[in-house]
Task: inverse folding
């Protein structure tokens, strides 16, 4: 039986299209990103090197979170092929890129996930799995926690709140309880204890506001999760909700898109802009296309400056600095303490 | 002025410091330190502030500390408990003055 469409794309919502999302962002009337950089005396953002290869292996996910910037869900079918996964490993073998960052959807559901992990680890690269936690409990994934531990994969796991109320509101009914069970599985295998099995939790706001202080939230999470559930972890990242895809749909339904964008612009932090992840990341889509980041990938904003469009082309032509292609969603990474796949960017804020 | 309270005035709070800025700067330095993580987490301090804001019925503070509580990871249930604490203290403060009422009544009356 085919799953019921639960995503924007599956339900035929106009916001399922990247062009419609860009149009909605443009209609807010907020300034162009590069204009704000110029106002602060900052040059347009350039990606001078690739330190992290972030590979989005597909849109399939066992969850349908309210804020998902990928519009992932059980009804999405886009999946990376073995050939494209091998091209990613070839790039890692040829260039000194230190980290392979695997994301989705639920990346573990892609048949190439384990091939990518094993290949990158053989090359001695750090591997990150952006994990929704509940995937660890699925039938057919019983050995996943052992696999991750065996290959010393860094697990970066979403947990927007240390309480059920906020987590379930954003990620679905009973997700908190399942996430706690999954975290216990990881901790039992040695994760989160300051050693080689690194466990990072990700907090993002349960609503249309910026995250609080990363350091303060980390202390709070640490105390609450350890005392209530015996769970330990290495670090907490705070990530701002990006006004695209399903979170944009959430804003649109409440008539709050312009207000949220204006808040992001008001909170622009030049120190955060100096450290945005696109300066050192390269994002690969499930079909091998290249982007500056996972958000640009979802908005179908390709690399500019004549940079290669696909991983095939990149392998043929080599790596070169490029100017990043910004749009109004970029204010999500530069607001307040900033936001990235590695959490806040300016922890002095 | 069409209203005493306008939401956009919250953003203009710093304008108060245009006169006697040295007092404003000292207030802000103290204020920031008060709300920093200490023996109490920033989330707990935001919830206390939210309760006090309700006790004072300050619409600016309610707006600001609802947002601040959310940002620090508090949820609706925790915020609702905080304002019940404020309500209970306000109610209790009224009722506790009943002792004064009883003392006066017993002095003057025959009960």
Result:
């Amino acid at each position: 039986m085919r799953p019921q469409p639960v995503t924007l794309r599956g339900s035929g919502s106009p916001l399922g299209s990247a062009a419609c999302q860009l149009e909605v962002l443009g209609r807010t009337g907020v300034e162009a990103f590069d204009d704000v950089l110029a106002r602060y005396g900052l040059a347009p953002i350039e990606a001078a090197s690739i330190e992290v290869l972030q590979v989005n292996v597909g849109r399939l996910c066992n969850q349908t979170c309210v804020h998902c910037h990928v519009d992932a869900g059980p009804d999405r079918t886009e999946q990376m092929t073995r050939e494209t996964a091998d091209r990613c490993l070839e790039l890692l073998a040829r260039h000194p890129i230190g980290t392979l960052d695997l994301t989705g959807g639920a990346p573990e559901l892609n048949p190439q996930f384990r091939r990518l992990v094993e290949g990158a680890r053989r090359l001695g690269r750090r591997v990150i799995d952006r994990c929704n936690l509940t995937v660890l409990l699925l039938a057919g994934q019983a050995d996943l926690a052992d696999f991750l531990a065996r290959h010393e994969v860094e697990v970066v796991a979403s947990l927007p709140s240390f309480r059920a109320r906020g987590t379930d509101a954003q990620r679905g009914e009973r997700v908190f309880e399942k996430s706690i069970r999954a975290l216990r599985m990881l901790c039992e295998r040695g994760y989160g204890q300051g050693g080689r099995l690194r466990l990072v939790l990700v907090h993002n706001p349960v609503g249309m506001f910026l995250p609080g202080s990363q350091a303060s939230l980390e202390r709070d999470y640490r105390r609450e999760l350890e005392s209530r559930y015996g769970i330990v972890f290495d670090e907490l990242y705070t990530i701002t909700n990006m006004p695209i895809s399903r979170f944009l749909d959430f804003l649109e339904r409440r008539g709050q898109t312009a207000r949220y964008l204006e808040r992001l612009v008001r909170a622009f932090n030049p120190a955060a802009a100096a450290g945005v992840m696109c300066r050192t990341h390269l994002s690969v889509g499930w079909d091998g296309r290249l982007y500056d980041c996972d958000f640009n990938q979802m908005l179908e904003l390709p690399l500019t400056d004549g940079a290669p469009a696909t991983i095939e082309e990149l392998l043929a032509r080599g790596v070169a600095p490029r100017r990043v292609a910004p749009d109004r969603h970029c204010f999500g990474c530069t607001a307040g303490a900033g936001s990235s796949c590695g959490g806040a960017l300016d922890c002095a804020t | 002025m069409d209203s005493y309270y306008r939401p956009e005035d919250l953003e203009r709070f710093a304008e108060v410091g245009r006169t006697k800025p040295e007092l404003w700067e000292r207030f802000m330095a103290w204020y920031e330190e008060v709300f920093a993580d200490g023996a109490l987490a920033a989330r707990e301090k935001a919830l206390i502030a939210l309760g006090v804001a309700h006790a004072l019925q300050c619409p600016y503070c309610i707006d600001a500390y609802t947002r601040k509580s959310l940002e620090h990871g508090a949820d609706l249930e925790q915020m609702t408990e905080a304002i019940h604490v404020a309500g209970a203290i306000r109610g209790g403060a009224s009722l506790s003055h009943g002792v004064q009422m009883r003392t006066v009544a017993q002095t003057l009356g025959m009960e």
Summary: Chain B has a mean pLDDT of 94. The radius of gyration of chain B is 19 Å. Residues 53 and 61 of chain B are 5 Å apart (CA to CA).
